[in-house]
Amino acid sequence: MTINRLEVSPLNSCDDNFVTITAYSSHLNGRGDISVYCQATQSTNVPIIILLHGVYGSHWVWSQLGQVEQVYQNLRQQGLNEFVLVMPSDGGHFEGSGYLPFNHADYESWVVEDVISAVIDTQPMCSDKSNIYICGLSMGGYGALRLGAKYPKVFSGISAHSSITNIEDFTDFVDRKTLGALQQTTDNYGGDVFTTLNDNKSTLVPLRLDCGKDDPLFTANSQLVRQLITANINHTFEIFDGGHSWEYWHLHVAKTFEFFANIEQAQ
């Protein structure tokens, strides 16, 4: 057996405010893991941000490789309102599930139903009145764009960093076995981001996305944005220096937190 890729957490990388949940999911036909970052609070109905990871990763990478809680803490000190950060596994399907539905397992419903229920059931500061936001990087951005568009009654805002935009974009990141499996999705839109956004544009919640100039997905993101403009789909697209890296995502996830905070303040 050959191991081709590894994501390894650094030593002493977890903050004391982390909770890990393992949930049995009928949608996964098995167990899934969720990391939750929540500071002690007397508040109720605290809004939730779901952060979806990319290929090869799992629930811990946003924190232990991206130090997302440090970004959040710094912004809190500057006046950012309170959120609970929720980081689920994608379900562990080959090199990445794409957060897609399949006949054998529904990785989409795992996020939209089970992850949210697990957090509300276990974290007292959250409730079914908490607004829920969705964000992701790379494959996670792909998931955030698709799920945010498909479920406007669940999510109040969407943010995507360096997003995959269709199943063909996975080619440079996964092996043939994973790509072939992704192509078997039962998704009504064939896993295409623009088709999903366009078909649901009448109910689309606030949307932002960004990509680095040196990212291999920059061309695909630029094409998606041109399609959004042509279809008159409201969005914000930001271009930054940088590539497909944790350094980039650590720096620019602050844009996501600020975007969601502005939505909260407008309500």
From TrEMBL:
GO terms for molecular function: acyltransferase activity, transferring groups other than amino-acyl groups; hydrolase activity. InterPro entries: AB_hydrolase_fold (IPR029058), Esterase-like (IPR000801), Mycobacterial_A85_antigen (IPR050583). SUPFAM superfamilies: alpha/beta-Hydrolases. Pfam families: Esterase. Keywords: Hydrolase. Gene3D superfamilies: alpha/beta hydrolase. Coiled coil: none annotated. This is Alpha/beta fold hydrolase.
